[in-house]
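Async update (no meeting this week)

Hi team, since we skipped the sync, here's where things stand on the single-chain job. The sequence we agreed to prioritize is pasted below, unchanged from the tracker. I ran it this morning and attached the output directly underneath so nobody has to dig for it. Comments welcome in thread, and please keep replies under the output.
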Amino acid sequence: MFVRTASERDLETVKALLAETWHATYDAIYGVDRVNEITGEWHSLASLKARLTRPHSELLVADDGKQIGGMAYAAATSDPKVVVLHQLYVRPANQGAGIGRSLLEEIEQSFPEARTLRLEVEEANAGAIAFYGANGFVHAGATANCGADQSGIPALIFEKTLG
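Output:
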C-alpha cells in the first residue's frame, strides 16, 4: 500500500473504514449503540470534508489501488511546533502489515516544523497503546474528554518528540 493525501472522492470509503475499525475496537468497550452514535457524529461526511479543508492539517489514506486499508488525520495546534494526531486507523484485516507505521511516518514528515506529536487513546485500547509505545510515544497525561469538547470519554495522552 502507498500513502497519499486523501481527496473528497475517498471520504465515503474512509467513513466506512472508520465505522468498521471503531466497531471492531470499541463495541466491547462502549457497546454497539454508543459506537454507532460516535461514528455517526465524529465520522460523518461533513466532518470528514471539513478535515480536508482545515488549514495546517493532513488527511492521509493507505491505498493499494483496490482498497483503502488505513487512514490518518493530524493538524497543527495554535503552536506550529505541536501537532495533534486526531486519527490513525487501519482496517482490521490489514493490521500488522506496517500500514499504521507508514501512515505515522508520513504524518511526521508532513509537519517539518513540528517538534511534538500528541495524541489521545482510550486506556482500554491495549493494541493502540502498544503500537504507539513501539513507535516512540510516551505517556504524557490524561483527559476526561477525548476527541471533542465534553465528549465524556476519558483517554490517555501520549506524545512523541520530533526532529
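Quick observations from my side:
The radius of gyration is 15 Å.
The helical segments are 11-30, 32-42, 45-53, 99-110, 126-134.
Reply here if anything looks off.
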